[in-house]
Give the backbone structure.
Amino acid sequence: MFPQIIGATLLCFAPSVFATDTTPLNTGNTAWILTATALVLFMTLPGLALFYGGLVRSKNVLSILVQCFAIASLISLLWLVGFYSLAFSDGGNLQNWLGGSGRIFMAGLTKDSMTGDIPEVVFAAFQMTFAIITPALIIGAFAERMKFAAVLIFSALWTLAVYVPVAHWVWGGGYFFQNGLIDFAGGTVVHITAGVAALVCALVLGQRNGFGKVAMPPHNLTMTITGAGMLWVGWYGFNGGSALAANGSAGMALFVTHIAASAGALAWMACEWIKFGKPSGLGIVTGVIAGLGTITGAAGVVGPAGALVIGLMAGVICFFMTQLIKKTLQIDDSLDVFPVHGVGGILGTFLAGIFCSPDLGIFSGFGYAGEHTSIASQLGIQVMGIVVIGLYTAVLTWVLLKVTALLTSGLRVSADAEREGLDLVAHEERGYDIK
Amino acid sequence: MFPQIIGATLLCFAPSVFATDTTPLNTGNTAWILTATALVLFMTLPGLALFYGGLVRSKNVLSILVQCFAIASLISLLWLVGFYSLAFSDGGNLQNWLGGSGRIFMAGLTKDSMTGDIPEVVFAAFQMTFAIITPALIIGAFAERMKFAAVLIFSALWTLAVYVPVAHWVWGGGYFFQNGLIDFAGGTVVHITAGVAALVCALVLGQRNGFGKVAMPPHNLTMTITGAGMLWVGWYGFNGGSALAANGSAGMALFVTHIAASAGALAWMACEWIKFGKPSGLGIVTGVIAGLGTITGAAGVVGPAGALVIGLMAGVICFFMTQLIKKTLQIDDSLDVFPVHGVGGILGTFLAGIFCSPDLGIFSGFGYAGEHTSIASQLGIQVMGIVVIGLYTAVLTWVLLKVTALLTSGLRVSADAEREGLDLVAHEERGYDIK
Amino acid sequence: MFPQIIGATLLCFAPSVFATDTTPLNTGNTAWILTATALVLFMTLPGLALFYGGLVRSKNVLSILVQCFAIASLISLLWLVGFYSLAFSDGGNLQNWLGGSGRIFMAGLTKDSMTGDIPEVVFAAFQMTFAIITPALIIGAFAERMKFAAVLIFSALWTLAVYVPVAHWVWGGGYFFQNGLIDFAGGTVVHITAGVAALVCALVLGQRNGFGKVAMPPHNLTMTITGAGMLWVGWYGFNGGSALAANGSAGMALFVTHIAASAGALAWMACEWIKFGKPSGLGIVTGVIAGLGTITGAAGVVGPAGALVIGLMAGVICFFMTQLIKKTLQIDDSLDVFPVHGVGGILGTFLAGIFCSPDLGIFSGFGYAGEHTSIASQLGIQVMGIVVIGLYTAVLTWVLLKVTALLTSGLRVSADAEREGLDLVAHEERGYDIK
Amino acid sequence: MKMVSAVIKPFKLDEVREALSEIGVTGLTVTEVKGFGRQKGHTELYRGAEYVVDFVPKVRLDLAVKEADVDRVLEVICRAAGTGKIGDGKIFVTDLLQVVRIRTGETNESAI
Amino acid sequence: MKMVSAVIKPFKLDEVREALSEIGVTGLTVTEVKGFGRQKGHTELYRGAEYVVDFVPKVRLDLAVKEADVDRVLEVICRAAGTGKIGDGKIFVTDLLQVVRIRTGETNESAI
Amino acid sequence: MKMVSAVIKPFKLDEVREALSEIGVTGLTVTEVKGFGRQKGHTELYRGAEYVVDFVPKVRLDLAVKEADVDRVLEVICRAAGTGKIGDGKIFVTDLLQVVRIRTGETNESAI
Ligand SMILES: Nc1ncnc2c1ncn2[C@@H]1O[C@H](COP(=O)(O)OP(=O)(O)O)[C@@H](O)[C@H]1O
Ligand SMILES: Nc1ncnc2c1ncn2[C@@H]1O[C@H](COP(=O)(O)OP(=O)(O)O)[C@@H](O)[C@H]1O
Ligand SMILES: Nc1ncnc2c1ncn2[C@@H]1O[C@H](COP(=O)(O)OP(=O)(O)O)[C@@H](O)[C@H]1O
């Protein structure tokens, strides 16, 4: 039993159980989830778009923005068509592995359908914004070199084959949900899947031409930092909204989220100050994102002091992982999606299993999940979740990239096009014409 | 009867009926409308300002931003002075055509005055943000060439003579309200009025010097796309908030809004891909806005599948109308306000009359309005609303431009000033000084 | 007694009194304060960061953004460690002057701890965002020349020694709270402290090299105006949220806030139009901020017409004070923090004492505070608050700057570093690389 | 061969380029520059702080031309770039010793 | 002394600079320019409005070189800047009468 | 007539322009350039990826001057632009065959 993440728990049988419509509407909770839905959309549009867009060279900035908007639009329509149904409606015999077809094209969804004490349509919209941001996170891995058509096809396939089932396993009443995996707001569902997929994408696509030789500095850090601020603010909705209520649980999720972000920022800043002699703005905001990504899975179950530790560890570990992936291993995960989101997601899912414990004194959290009654047993399922979801994501991502490559005769644009920049080549427009 | 747009319905007798203050406050609904008010302000400041600002040449970017802020400030004060009263207080004998004087300078408005179950001051503030964005939308038509004083005078006159009465007719208890016109969140009140006014402005002002000969590319599409993201997010408050409650109606309005935006984006993208060979970022976000503007009138009354059709049609039709106005007719509606907002508003108001029908199977909506009981009868009033409001707006806009021209000795700056750019000429400052 | 600012009143005994947890949770109020917390964070990140960042030269833009993010992170962690406790927990015998140690490291704070009818953790998070923005406001005074380490140390010390006690005096149950000082949302606690500190910083640090001789135009006014829009929107949460409820008081606070912002904008615009012949975009948004800063202390206690007067006065007086400080006195308060925020805070605190009066006809407010029953007596405590808090801030700021200077061997970077720009010198990165 | 460098008003660039194309000029290089001369700059005001910007945006064209074409080129630029108002700009002619086309290695007149 | 001015493709800048360093060139000045020539520009489309951009981004290098080094410098630039595709650019050589190093007042060859 | 081209430190631009005005120079053209020379550039670090920027921002002034004024102009530039630190820049003098004022058609010395 883990009443403390009752919000997340509620998700599980949502349409099926609550189709009875007996719980009366709570307008306060509904107001907060409507708001949270806006906040999470804001994270992608324009938050993530700007965060990523500023990091590429100016000849590719629009390609990033376009991809974020196009993915958002595409996944939204697919969500309506059937993804929501497959993730969150009752899967019957297959419930452990996939949802059902009951909500295909939102069949039977009225204004009165409820999920807990909020309208189901609000729940469906809120969840949609998570389904949007996850594939959008991945584009950082293949930035500046992938064909636009390939991006769209891959994103649609990936969301169907990876995001939707994993969301079902963890939140939709599936296997991991049944077995008490703690993932309050997407440490596994969002960050591990996106991070691992990014790593596979980077390996399959290969480095950008000139990687390591030619300077590829961010073209507009003011844009990136602006996006980081929006992500931070929007994350209040991401984690705070995952309580599916406007109560102490939402407040605590919001507060620990903020603390982890702050701690991640200062930890990354300290690493740079010590190692390079100067702390950078990009470093600080990357620490913010690392802290946010890491606390996501743990948000509703850990206390403020636990969040502080989680945030500090996120800053330090993601910092070193970024160095490792990029400099040591020479993997061109262009915008460092794996070392920040993937590693953060893994770390946070793991640490959630520790800091949820109510027996850590000042570092205590709000209790174990499901049948778990000790850190060891909780960590068991956490590690299993990390490994299974990580591996599943890796394999599927690889397969889907190969399929996409077939459909679009290769994933990458030509070397000439890459040099010219995707904005002109793929979209026939330029980001800036400032005189 | 159309209980499904009860939110909009409530608006009507607001101050008068609910001045009795008997409905107890609902904090959840109030929380959502406070939030929605912030979201709608965010649409103009900085959303629309950025969306438009990025589309002009860099020498005029500040003039756009300034106009948005100055209009917002001016209309807000006028709202307090009397516009709110004229739009939403009881008009007595004239109720069919205009509100009364009871709320001039917000007389008698206390913290306890109620509109339904939310404080009237919250309702007044929420409506104010709609009155702000409508004249701000129009500036896209005369961008880069109109005198600043003329912009201010015209905006004030226009809001008084067009927006305020139309808002009263449709939402404030006037003629169209009485006769069951469906306009959930401003398809007629906001988008048709702004769009038609824009067309008239473009015709009266004439083309920018060099239109069609000199390149006038957007100076900063990253700014435009950022603004589009903010508009999308803010529109959750625009349409979702128009339910005046945090309930299933608000949730459904939000969700169908999102679906129409996504469908508009993909439809516009497809049109460009097919017709030009490449989809552009500007195209995608223009499709988003077309979808949003089109769903606005229909938001609370159509279902998700209906919204999908509406969004797809919006993308395609607004795309071709943009080509028609700009390329075929050579009308310099500089930022395409009429083909996107005007056409979208007309289309959405029309389609609301169809997709509100509860008898369209999967495409069903939530019922007719007022006394209407069939698509045909509902379409009757919808078409009448479009025609009457469109014509009224066109005539008044023309007259007010002539009046303004007299007051400011001409609407346009000199050719030299136009070449120099409005930022320096009108505001003695430059947008960028990046080294 | 001043039930009209019951919100603010509630703050006072918060943790102590309400630790009894007997008031049931109000989800509507909680939803609004969660939202308001996001809005106030948004004011700093990225609102204020952009507003300030656009005003400096492009070689220093990142230094501003970095400082905003680093201060936010640092103060957040310190808030957790003990600042919240010192400001808002029961101070026992010292209650008049400082809070207690009961909430150090948020000890004893559970999801069920309540402050009034919202979770205490929500209240603590909301207040944290105020503690973040106050030191962040000050950086405008020493922009483009202060060492990064000095900024961090000074901000931490200043928040501890100035912000925390003043917040306790005014909101946390201390002396001024007991004596009926009206400060609804931070006229004294935020704006006077930040403004006065800025003036002292400018005097101690001295002018930037070349001040008055070399052109130092804002490098990106589109960024500044974007930030201003975000500040305006976020201020709805700042002032509206300070009601700690989603009710008519919050609505009224939001509405008068908006009116004062609009009036400030138009007043400043008029001043420039008359004095310089042209109104500028920077002028208009500065008027917005002046109006917002000025109404802050008065938001919940004045009516719309009072707010109009306050906003107009804010625009005019802050305009002339900016001229005085910069041009006449040649003080390089680089981003005009004192004349806008400091003067606005003083003015608003003073005018709150007048326009709270219920006896001013159309300009009436919602009543005096504490035991006060006349404008004269209310003004007594208002003036005392202004003088005491202003002087306390001035002296402490001076001392803390001297202490910081010792710790960092001087506050300023070298002249060469100042010419090179802080972005490269302090952070080894550049804001823009646009091709 | 001569190098003709013309400093002109930016909004005249397209007109000049087209006029030059018409007389057979097939290549030129353009630089954005700022000019200081008789034409006055402008003033900017930021919260009352006044900045006088002395420099005026200009565009500079560099064309390598054959000896024989110099006069015609000068005449065409003068005509196309002129507005009759102060600040129309100037043309400078210098001697050009050698030209190389990088792609082919061709030199001098055939490389122009 | 001669002034060698080369207009090249921007992405070749680093290569050319390194190749020049190798043969002892220690100083040069770079300008971002736009070129018009045989190499075509591109088209941009904004809501269906088409803008043909005739100009191609180029980079211009100016190097003051001693008489003796001119040929070697030309050769190195040609080699390092060449891709064999249209638009590789051109090199122009003019006579240089005088050079002054501001810091020291040194002149001519010792100032290069 | 001579064309004097000076590459200087950007923050010295106003000083140099004023010093030149004082000795009667009424026109000049300014280009933003990047210099490569003895003065070192800087390093930028982005998430640990290091970019060495070799080029230093400089400003280039081009002035057409009468034969007689050349020496005075060189001297004034040297004085006003000098800081004594590496990277102060260089001045190049080339021969100027012809000058035309576009607005009036005036040529040579009267066109300067
Ligand atoms: N002596 C000069 N050397 C170099 N450039 C000059 C010189 N005089 C003028 N210019 C350039 O020519 C431009 C136009 O000169 P200006 O005196 O303003 O007007 P006009 O062209 O009508 O004589 C200047 O902005 C500057 O770029
Ligand atoms: N006559 C010329 N004068 C000055 N610059 C020229 C001239 N011709 C070409 N250029 C420059 O050289 C560049 C390359 O020329 P182009 O004709 O495109 O190809 P290529 O170098 O292969 O001959 C042009 O973009 C332009 O900048
Ligand atoms: N041979 C050269 N040709 C063209 N420009 C040069 C040459 N040498 C130096 N420069 C320019 O002069 C600038 C200053 O030169 P540098 O060697 O750094 O210092 P200094 O001026 O003290 O000798 C360089 O940045 C470059 O722009």
In short: Chain C touches chain A through 61 residues (CB under 8 Å). Residues 11-427 of chain C form a domain with the Ammonium transporter fold fold (CATH 1.10.3430.10). Residues 375-407 of chain C form the longest helix (33 residues).
